[in-house]
Structures are given as structure tokens and as C-alpha cells.
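**User:**
If convenient, please work through this fold.
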Amino acid sequence: MSREQVGTAARLVVKVGSSSLTTPQGTIDVDRVDALVDVLAARRLAGGQIVLVSSGAIAAGLGPLGLRSRPKDLATQQAAASVGQGVLVARYTSSFARYGLRVGQVLLTADDMMRRSHYRNARRTLARLLELGIVPVVNENDTVATDEIRFGDNDRLAALVAHVTYADAMVLLSDVDALYDGDPRRDGARRITEVRGPEDLEGVELGTSGRVGTGGMVTKVQAARIATGAGVPVVLTAAAHAAHALAGDDVGTYFHPVGRHPGTRLLWLAHAATGQGRLHLDEGAVEAVVGRRKSLLPAGVVKVEGDFSAGDPVDLCGPAGVVVARGLVNYDASEIPELLGRSTRELARVLGPEYERELIHRDDIVILGHHH
């Protein structure tokens, strides 16, 4: 697998940060948007499929709302995003129209990526847009995301979109042209041209840069890890180098794919989901779930914490309190205490046949040990 494959990828996810789309005053920069679209449209017209994950809704809303800088409180951020999202999509619509291409807006929340029915729907919608020749413009649905369930940055969202669309490559565009082994503003810092594994990142300074966006280098590296862990190669570079990045030229930092495509839902569970509660397991249950990949039965659970509903992601903790796995639970939190310590057969006898099912089915469990 090499960089050239980015140049020939049939389906690309391209993520652009708000700092790459805005003027120094924080308004949307028409010329910068057009320059990016020139590159994306060329690829699209050459037969490639593009999914664009674009930040910038809040930045686009500052001007119309008369705000001088990015608001601190969530409600005003969401108001700015609401006003700005329309402005942003209108900008992309007219920019792509210069090439006779249409865009379609797709707003996603972290929740959409966790619930089985939602993520299937997101996958179908994106697939259909691509079939219809549309360029999907994806953003986090900021106006309804709460602090608990937001991606908080579009880097992770892009990595998950790369999954859900079975993309062949992902390009992360920001205001930084590559990863460096020191502060790029000082002399002597070397560009890291490729990353094959964690050892290539030792000593890398991942400080946050830029004011406009939310994602520092840390989130970009995490996003690259999510994508490459699922077999999708990643190029990280500045928006100014977009054409070279998409062509597979030697710009930015190239992250080699390391894993293969796992079940997408388990990926959501590992990376997009936040546990809505905790189930504390005894040693035997940890061994069964983690060691032998079995379903979680009520008999092995000693304690339940949190207020969650059936279908929610919950964290599974071992005796030491360390989170070892996460899963989609089959019961509400309130139903579980009376099940604890009992065998499923006994439960079916005492409470009725619907209680014979496992707390969490093994297909809905992701082991977290090696991810963190």
C-alpha cells in the first residue's frame, strides 16, 4: 500500500478544517473555497467519487450574527452553526455549480454513528448520493449535538465517514502542511513523511495550533489511527497542497493502513460511542467476554451504574474498575439489578421467556484493550 493509491482511489473522503476556509477576520473566504473546489471537481470529473467533510459552519455564522470571535457558550455556538451551515452549503453549491456539479448536505451526530438503524441509514443515504453523482458535504449536526455526544471535531467524524462509505483513502486538510518532529515554526524541525505505526510518532509535538477550529494535531493523529486501523490510508497536509495530496504526490504526512475493514458498527462503538453507563464484571465474565469473545450474561455482572436504555452503548469494567469492552445493552438500567447473578435459564423461569436473552450479545461487543 503506498501513497500513489491516494492518486488512484475510486472513492475519497476529504476533510477540510474551518481555518482553511476562512479569512483572517473569520468570515468564509470565497477564493479559498473556490480553490479547494477546483481540485475536488477535477477529481470528480475524472471519474472519482468525493465525500467532503467540511467544518466552518460556526465561522460562517459569525459575520451574519455580528460576532467578532467564536462564541464560548454552546447555545451561541449552535445558533452560529445554524445560521452558518446554510451559508456554507450555499457557498459550496455555487462553487461546484461552476463545474456543473451538485452537492448534497448530510448532517450527522455521534448518535447517528452508534445506533444500528441510524448508521445503516447514513450509509444508504451516502451511497445513494454518490450513485446519483452528487458530492455529499458532511458536517457534524452542531445545532443539536450536546457536549456529551459530540464528535467535537470533524477529524474523527471524517474517519468514521471513511468507514461507513468504504472509502479507498482519506485526506485531512488543515492549516498545517504535515506532522513535524518539533515545532515547524522553529528551525530544524523535520517533516515526518510517513507513519507506519506508533513508533514513528515518538517525540512528535502534537500541540494545538490555529484559533478558528477545534481540532489540534492530536485529533488528526487519532482520526488517522481510526482510519488506518480499518484499512484506509490517510494523507495529512495543508489545504494549499490539496491538488498534490489528491494526486498521490509526496506532500504532507502519509499514514499507512494497518488493519482491515472491521465490522463498521463495532468501529462506531469503539470510537464514536460514549458509554452511557457501566456494568461491573467478575473475573469469569471478563475472561468469557474478552478472552473467549462470548456474550455477556447476567450471571457475571456484579454491579450496574448509570441511567441507560436498551440499545445504548455501555462500558464493561473488570474487577479493577478498568474499562475492558463496550457493548450495546439489551435492557434498561432499571431492569438489570433483578437479573444480576442469575442464570438465563432461571430468569426465563422466574420472569418470563423474554428475559432469556443475554445482557449484551457478542456481536454487539467491542474489546477496548488494544485501542487505547
Observations:
- The domain at 275-371 is CATH 2.30.130.10 (Archaeosine Trna-guanine Transglycosylase; Chain: A, domain 4).
